[in-house]
From TrEMBL:
It is found in: Membrane. Its main location: membrane. The keyword Secreted does not apply. Pfam families: C2-set_2 (PF08205), I-set (PF07679). The chain crosses the membrane at residues 530-553. It comes from Gasterosteus aculeatus aculeatus (three-spined stickleback). It is a single-pass membrane protein. Residues 1-24 form the signal peptide. CDD domains: Ig. Residues 24-138, 146-249, 255-334, 345-421, 428-510 form the Ig-like domain. GO terms for cellular component: membrane. This is Melanoma cell adhesion molecule b.
């Protein structure tokens, strides 16, 4: 774009001079510098002006070698164009343009870093003389991505000597790239004996630079969390570029000045039977340091700074020490924590085991469990809460008060229990029934049941009014209670008694069963009704049958003969019913008796 503007400016200037009639000499104009990336193609433009009427112009291109010598590249006159052979540009250059246009362009392809030289465009007229223009070609190569390598080993704190932190390297750049070290996003500031940067570079056979930079510094404890990286700056056409390496950190070894010990689990209170996990950590970082737990005169070696104690008891209470020892200096740093194991002993019930009470008596029982914490006590019977607190108070006891009482003591996830068996002694008590008076039909069977409570457990017998002892069908006996069932065949009125007894008394319950029979009159009425129903059904069936026969007679389908037939009914002697059958085609009359006998007309 700049070349085109220059050309336009010169052409305009020449036209202006020509208009004013000013005599012009040979003049050449070129850019001071042309910048290009390695491997690209670049044009180098030479613009010139000639006086009017000039002919026989000679155009030449030269370049200045590294030794400062002027080397010919191209020659052109009105009769020929010649490219100089044997130069580094011979096979990669071309020249275009005419004298008339005032512009000659030399194009160089596949530019290399060695091509960064000064080029001369020479325009010579045999009359007006020679004019030269100069352009310097600047070649750039963008470097590869940089690398950083930190020292793998750790650093011990030493306030008087430098330690190598790492090395940054960037390859294949041109011109030579620049490396700047950063610590935590801030450029490092070299200071002799404290922080030093040592750069180095190599020019490769390809003409490109490899640059290295080594960082050395006095390592302090405060450097343990620092991040180091490098920034690479390099030139590009019309500007500059930048790239960065990844960051590295360093391992700093320093002794502990304090040790922390804590219970990692369980969270909250510790109970007997738990497993406790103790952690220990020093605030230093020394590979030569070892950790040891100490408790009740015994030493324990943790794994990865963790110590687990299983199934702890109250004997595990006390101070737990963690000792960090530097094996190089044998210096010890200690930390400690206190562990308290909470406990809950077995419940103690007073009175113990079983207590025997009289009906209407009283009882006060207590339940306690020794614990390091405040406990809560609940009394249960048959799965239901009957009392809350350490004491159980029973007044005016009955047989319902008997049974097993569970004392449940709880505290912070711990639980224990005890039991108390209460027995209430007294004479038998038969539970009253609403069905002691009953009526039952004869020839049936009834079950009578008798539920008795008492202690000692009563014995039960069944007896009738006439003194007959009945055998129980079934009998279920539990402590202080009996359920007895007897089966009785009812044939007549009967009285049966359930009698219960133990050492303290007796009790009985009487059942009166009245046998009932079905009345005879009722039976006859029921039989007469059945007979009447049967007779009505038969009459209906006969009526239906008569209707069918009459219908068939009208249709002429009775007696098995064709033609007109008639039936005549006349009186006869006792039990004689005569049917006369006549036919128009015969003179004979056949008389049939009731019994199917043939009769003569005389008998008729």
């Amino acid at each position: 774009m700049a070349a085109r503007n220059t050309v336009s400016l010169l052409v305009g200037l020449l036209a202006l001079l020509s208009t004013w009639g000013v005599a012009a000499k040979v003049e050449v104009s070129m850019e001071d510098r042309v910048e290009v990336f390695k491997g690209e193609t670049t044009p180098i433009t030479c613009m010139f002006t000639l006086p009017e009427g000039v002919s026989g112009v000679i155009i030449e291109w030269f370049y200045v070698t590294k030794r400062g010598e002027k080397q010919s590249l191209y020659y052109q006159d009105p009769s020929k164009k010649v490219v100089t052979k044997g130069t580094q540009f011979t096979d990669r250059m071309s020249v275009n343009g005419t004298v008339a246009s005032g512009v000659i362009v030399m194009t160089i392809s596949d530019v290399q870093v060695d091509d960064g030289v000064e080029f001369i465009c020479s325009i010579r007229d045999l009359v007006e003389g020679t004019a030269n223009g100069r352009t310097t070609l600047k070649v750039f190569a963008k470097p590869d991505l940089p690398t950083i390598e930190g020292v793998k080993t750790g650093f011990s704190i030493n306030e008087h000597s430098l330690s190598k932190i790492g090395t940054c390297e960037v390859k294949n750049g041109f011109p030579k790239p620049n490396i700047t070290w950063y610590r935590n996003k801030t450029p490092v500031r070299p200071a002799p004996g404290v922080l030093e940067v040592v750069p180095s570079s190599i020019l490769g056979s390809n003409g490109l630079f490899t640059v290295k930079s080594e960082l050395n510094m006095v390592v302090k404890k405060e450097d343990k969390d620092d991040l180091f990286y490098c920034e690479i700056n390099f030139f590009v056409p019309a500007g500059w570029g930048m790239t960065e390496t990844s960051a590295i950190n360093i391992t700093v070894y320093y002794p502990s000045t304090a040790v922390d010990v804590w219970v990692e689990s369980p969270k909250g209170i510790i109970k007997e039977g738990d497993s406790i996990e103790l952690h220990c950590r020093g605030n230093g970082n020394m590979p030569s340091s070892i950790l040891t737990f100490h408790h009740n005169g015994e030493d324990y070696t943790p794994e990865n700074n963790v110590m687990v104690f299983h199934n702890v008891t109250r004997l595990s209470n006390g101070v737990y020490e963690c000792i960090s020892t530097d094996t190089d200096t044998f210096k010890e740093i200690k930390g400690k924590t206190v562990v308290f194991v909470n406990y809950l002993d077995a419940a103690v019930v007073v009175p113990e085991d079983t207590v025997l009470l009289d009906l209407g008596g009283e009882l006060t029982a207590t339940c306690n469990a020794l614990s390091s914490l405040q406990t809560e006590t609940v009394w249960m019977k048959f799965g239901e809460e009957v009392s809350r607190g350490h004491s159980l108070i029973l007044k005016n006891v009955t047989f319902d008060s008997a049974g097993t009482y569970l004392c449940l003591v709880t505290v912070e996830g711990m639980e224990t229990n005890g039991t108390l068996n209460v027995k209430v002694q007294g004479p038998p008590q038969i539970m009253k029934s609403d069905h002691t008076e009953m009526e039952e039909s004869s020839e049936t069977t009834v079950n009578l049941s008798c539920n008795v409570r008492g202690f000692p457990t009563p014995s039960v017998i069944w007896i009738t009014a006439d003194g007959t002892i009945l055998k129980a069908e079934s009998e279920v006996e539990r402590e202080g209670e009996v359920m007895s069932v007897v089966r009785i065949d009812v044939t007549s009125d009967i009285t049966a008694s359930c009698k219960a007894s133990n050492a303290l008394g007796t009790d009985s319950l009487t059942f009166n069963i009245k046998a009932t029979k079905i009345p005879a009159k009722k039976i006859r009425k029921e039989g007469t009704g059945v007979v009447i129903a049967v007779v009505i059904i038969c009459i209906l069936l006969l009526a239906i049958l008569g209707s069918v026969l009459y219908f068939l007679y009208k249709k002429g389908k009775i007696c098995g003969r064709s033609g007109k037939q008639s039936l005549t009914k006349e009186k006869s002697g006792k039990d004689n019913i005569v049917v006369e059958m006549k036919n128009d085609n015969t003179e004979e009359a056949v008389l049939l008796g009731v019994n199917g006998e043939k009769q003569t007309p005389r008998n008729q």
